[in-house]
Amino acid sequence: MTMYATSREALARTRSVANDALGSASAGEATASAAQTGAELFAVVETLDGQRTLRTALADASVSASRRSALVEELFAGQVSGITAQILKSAVSESWSKASDLLNSLVELGREALLRAAADQDQLDTVEDELFRLGRIVAANPSLEQALSDLGKPVQAKRELLGRLLYGKVTAVTEALAIQAISRLRTTAPADALDALAGQAAQVRDRAVAHVRSAAPLSDSQLEKLTATLTRTYGKPVTVHVEVDTELLSGLVVRIGDEVIDGSGAGRLAALRKTLK
């Protein structure tokens, strides 16, 4: 998410409020509070997505912060929890470079709350793996990817389609994150959006993510060796996601962030062709 300094600082302050509010929940209520907050923030964003005048008013710097906060109180009193209301009031009291930054930041905070709930239940690694695998399923199914990315298709139809696909097969957090991401696609491909969510889950665990394409399935020992090597190289734990791509001929391709390590047979052949031209 790219934002100017003003919006980045506003997000940082709002995030601090959100973390303090969620951290104040009792041990027995922490998971439920985080999950509820994430779901409610997503619902608020969905409401604002459909009301341009309202979302503009909530980010209008020419209106006093107290008035914007009061507007949130009027709109959502009794509809969201005290924690969610506190986060919303903090968010609209900030100055944002543009109205879309406010909404995108609420999405980000909603995701963070849900990932916090998953962490509280020791499900964060499961959520990360499910999101990655879902991204691979979508990428490998052109008709599904087209259906989820079609801007002319009603959002509710996309939600229902993905909901049917995921029902009973993934954690509640994975389902909520995936459906919300697909609902707000603009120019990002569905598989890329899901990969980004998997990466965010890894970041919460303070891990780097390695996307590996291998010409053949890796054995457990090969996967362990690759993981250990990448962990030493990058100086932090690395989560390795592997997909088989027979078109590589041999070897594998590793991508971590913007860095790509191509040790595949297809890559070597391509390099050889360049030298022969």
Automatic annotation (TrEMBL):
Database matches in InterPro entries: ATPase_OSCP/d_CS, ATPase_OSCP/dsu
Recorded GO CC terms: plasma membrane; proton-transporting ATP synthase complex
Pfam family, one: OSCP
Membrane topology (UniProt): Peripheral membrane protein
Transmembrane regions listed in the UniProt entry: none
Signal peptide start-end: none
PANTHER family linked: ATP SYNTHASE DELTA CHAIN
Protein name: ATP synthase subunit delta
Organism lineage: Bacteria, Bacillati, Actinomycetota, Actinomycetes, Mycobacteriales
